[in-house]
C-alpha cells in the first residue's frame, strides 16, 4: 500500500454531473482539492458519436459485470471517464416541477416530500442553466415551474420532421414545448458536459489536481467511526491511501452506495453511514419506453432532441394520478439509450425487410415516454461476495402504460398518411442511465442517509453529491437537479471553509 504524503482539504471522488460541478464551484476557494476518477479522458471521436452500429454493438457499457436478482450477469450502461455519464448523455437539462418537491399521491403509492423545496433550488437551477449553457424557451409549458431568469440561450429550431408533429399536435390543443438542452455552441464538441464546464475550469486553479484511472475501493474511518480518515484507491494496479479533511462521494447513485457498503467496519457493521439501513435502498430507474413513429419523409437520422410534451405529466381527464413526460429522442442514429431497446428495430426489420437498419432509422422519429418510479426499499443495490447485485422491480406500471398508449393515440390522431407503425420497447435492466435514490437526504437520521446539506448523518466529514440524494425521482430528466444540488452543497461547503 502506498501512502500519499499530501494532505488535502477536500477529496472529490467521481467527476460526473455532481463531482465535476462541485469541483469548479470549490476551486476558487484556494483549498487543496484532489479529484479521483476511475476512468480516463475520453477522446472526442468516442463521445456522443454514433452511426448505425449503435444498434449492433453494446456501446458505452462498462467492462465489469453486475448481477440481477436471479444471478444473471450483465455489463451496465455506465460510462467511466472524466465527465462520467455526462460525456454520453442527451444533455436534456430540465428543472423538476414545484409539485415534484411535495408529497404526491400516485396509483402505486406516495412520492415523498423533499426537505428542501423548489424555491431553495431555484437560484441553483438558474446558476446551473448558465453554467451548462441551457437553451430553452419559457412560457410554453403548462407544468413549467416559476423562474427568476430567462433561459441563457434561445432554443434551436426543430428538425422539419419534428416541426410537422409539433404543428399538428398544437392544433389539437396540446402544448409542445422546446426541450431545454445544454449546448456549447462549438461544432467539434457541441454537448455541454461536466468535463467542459466542471473539470476543465477547476483544473485551471493550481490548488486542484486530478488523478485518473483511480478507482476508489473503500473509505476508512477513525477509531470511533465519526470521521473518514482515508480514501483507499487502486491507481494503475497499485493500492493507495489518501487523506483529507472532507471527503465527497460523487460516483453515481449505484457506485457511491457500493463504496459505502464496501466500507463496513466495526463501528459501521452494515456499511458506512448506514445506521438507517437505507444505503443502497430506494434505487429508482425512471420507467422509460422508446416509441418509434415511422415517417414517409426521410430525415438525417442525426439531429438533436428538441421537443417535450407535458400535458399528461399530472394525469389526464381519465386518470387522476401523474403519468409523466414525453420527449423526442433526436435522430435515431445517435441515441445510445434508444439503441438499448432492440425489440423495436428487430420488429421493424422483420415487418419491413426491404429496408436496411440505417434507412429505417432515417425514416423514423423516436419518442421517449418517461414516468416517475416510486422509492421502494426492496429496490436496491447489494454487495455480496464482492459482487454488485441490483434487486429491481419496476413500479407505477399502469401510470406508465397509460402514458405510452395516450401518446400512441396522439400520434395516430395526426397521422394523415396512415404510414406509421408504433411498436414500443422498454428499457432493460442493464440500462442504469437514469439512476437515483440510494442515499436519500432528509431531516430524520432513522429514515435517510444524508442530512439536508448532503452530509452523512453518521459521519461528520462525509458528503454524497450525485444522484444518490433524490428522495423521489420525478418524471423529468435528473442531471440539472444533480448539477443544481452540487452548486447548493458547494455554497454550504464554502461557508464551512471560510
Ligand atoms: C446514454 C445516457 C443518456 C442520458 N441522457 C440524459 C439526459 O438527456 N438528461 C439528463 O438529465 N440525464 C441524462 N442521463 C443521466 C445523467 O447522465 C445522469 O443523471 C448524471 O450524469 C448523474 O450524475 P452523477 O454525478 O450522479 O453521476 P455520473 O455523471 O455518472 O458520474 C459518476 C462519476 O464517478 C466515477 N466513478 C464511479 N465509480 C468510481 C469509483 N469507484 N472511483 C472513482 N470514480 C468513480 C465515474 O467514472 C463518473 O465519472 C443520461 C445517461 C446516459 C448514460
Task: Walk me through this protein's architecture.
With 498 residues, this protein is α+β, with helices and mostly antiparallel strands. It has a single domain, classed as FAD/NAD(P)-binding domain (3-Layer(bba) Sandwich), CATH 3.50.50. The protein is 22% helix and 21% strand. Strands 1, 2, 10, 11, 12, 13 and 23 form a seven-stranded mixed β-sheet that branches. Strands 8-16-17-18-15-21 form a six-stranded antiparallel β-sheet, sandwiched between helices. A two-stranded antiparallel sheet has the order 3-4. Helix 1 runs parallel beside helix 10 and helix 2 (118-131) crosses helix 10. The protein is globular, with a radius of gyration of 22 Å. The chain starts with a strand and ends with a helix. 52% of the residues are buried. Residues 13-19, 36-39, 77, 80, 84-86, 88-92, 214-216, 250-252, 255, 259, 336-337, 433-434, 466-467, 477-479, 482 line the site of flavin-adenine dinucleotide.
CATH architecture: 3-Layer(bba) Sandwich
Number of DSSP E strands: 23
**Attached small molecules:** flavin-adenine dinucleotide
- Cα shape: globular
Helix content: 10-25%
Q: Report the radius of gyration as a whole number of Å.
A: 22 Å
Runs in which pLDDT lies below 50 for 5 or more consecutive residues are none
Binned strand content? 15-25%
Distance between the termini: 34 Å
| Nearest-integer average pLDDT | 92
The number of domains is 1
| Top-tier CATH class | Alpha Beta
Tell me the number of helical segments per DSSP (H or I, 4 or more residues long). Answer: 10
Which structural class matches the secondary elements?
alpha+beta
CATH topology: FAD/NAD(P)-binding domain
CATH superfamily: FAD/NAD(P)-binding domain
Quick one: biggest sheet?
A: 7 strands, mixed
Amino acid at each position: 500500500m502506498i501512502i500519499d504524503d499530501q494532505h488535502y482539504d477536500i477529496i472529490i471522488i467521481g467527476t460526473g454531473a455532481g463531482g465535476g460541478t462541485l469541483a469548479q464551484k470549490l476551486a476558487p476557494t484556494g483549498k487543496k482539492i484532489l479529484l479521483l476518477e476511475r476512468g480516463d479522458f475520453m477522446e472526442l471521436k468516442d463521445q456522443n458519436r454514433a452511426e448505425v452500429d449503435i444498434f449492433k454493438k453494446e456501446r458505452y457499457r462498462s467492462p465489469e459485470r453486475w448481477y440481477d436478482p436471479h444471478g444473471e450477469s450483465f455489463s451496465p450502461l455506465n460510462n467511466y471517464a472524466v465527465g462520467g455519464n455526462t460525456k454520453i448523455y442527451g444533455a436534456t437539462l430540465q428543472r423538476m416541477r414545484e409539485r415534484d418537491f411535495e408529497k404526491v399521491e400516485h396509483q402505486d403509492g406516495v412520492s415523498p416530500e423533499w426537505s428542501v423545496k423548489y424555491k431553495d433550488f431555484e437560484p441553483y437551477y438558474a446558476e446551473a442553466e448558465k453554467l451548462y449553457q441551457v437553451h430553452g424557451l419559457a412560457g410554453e409549458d403548462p407544468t413549467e415551474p416559476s423562474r427568476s431568469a430567462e433561459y441563457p440561450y434561445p432554443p434551436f429550431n426543430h428538425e422539419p420532421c419534428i416541426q410537422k408533429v409539433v404543428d399538428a399536435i398544437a392544433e389539437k390543443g396540446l402544448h409542445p414545448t422546446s426541450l431545454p438542452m445544454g449546448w456549447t455552441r462549438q461544432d467539434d464538441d457541441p454537448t455541454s458536459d461536466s468535463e467542459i464546464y466542471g473539470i476543465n475550469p477547476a483544473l485551471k486553479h493550481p490548488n486542484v489536481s486530478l488523478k485518473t484511472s483511480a478507482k476508489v475501493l473503500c473509505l476508512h474511518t477513525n477509531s470511533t467511526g465519526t470521521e473518514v480518515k482515508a480514501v483507499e484507491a487502486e491507481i494503475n494496479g497499485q493500492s493507495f491511501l489518501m487523506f483529507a479533511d472532507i471527503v465527497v462521494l460523487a460516483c453515481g447513485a449505484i457506485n457511491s452506495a457500493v463504496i459505502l457498503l464496501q466500507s463496513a467496519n466495526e463501528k459501521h457493521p452494515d456499511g458506512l453511514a448506514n445506521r438507517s439501513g437505507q444505503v443502497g435502498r430506494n434505487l429508482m430507474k425512471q420507467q422509460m419506453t422508446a416509441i418509434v413513429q415511422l415517417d414517409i419523409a426521410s430525415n438525417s437520422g442525426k439531429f438533436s432532441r428538441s421537443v417535450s410534451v407535458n400535458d399528461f405529466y399530472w394525469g389526464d381527464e381519465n386518470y387522476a394520478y401523474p403519468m409523466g413526460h414525453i420527449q423526442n429522442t433526436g435522430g435515431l442514429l445517435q441515441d445510445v439509450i434508444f439503441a438499448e431497446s432492440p425489440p423495436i428495430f428487430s420488429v421493424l426489420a422483420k415487418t419491413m425487410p426491404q429496408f436496411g437498419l440505417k434507412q429505417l432509422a432515417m425514416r423514423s422519429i423516436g419518442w421517449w415516454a418517461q414516468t416517475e418510479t416510486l422509492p421502494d426499499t426492496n429496490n436496491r443495490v447489494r454487495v455480496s461476495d464482492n459482487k454488485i447485485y441490483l434487486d429491481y422491480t419496476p413500479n407505477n406500471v399502469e401510470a406508465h402504460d397509460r402514458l405510452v398508449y395516450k401518446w400512441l393515440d396522439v400520434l395516430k390522431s395526426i397521422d394523415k398518411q396512415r404510414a406509421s407503425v408504433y411498436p414500443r420497447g422498454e428499457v432493460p435492466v442493464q440500462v442504469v442511465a437514469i439512476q437515483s435514490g440510494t442515499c436519500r437526504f432528509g431531516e430524520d437520521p432513522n429514515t435517510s442517509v444524508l442530512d439536508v446539506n448532503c452530509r452523512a448523518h453518521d459521519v461528520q466529514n462525509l458528503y454524497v453529491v450525485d444522484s444518490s440524494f433524490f428522495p423521489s425521482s420525478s418524471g423529468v430528466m435528473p442531471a440539472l437537479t444533480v448539477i443544481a444540488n452540487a452548486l447548493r452543497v458547494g455554497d454550504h461547503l464554502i461557508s464551512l471553509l471560510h
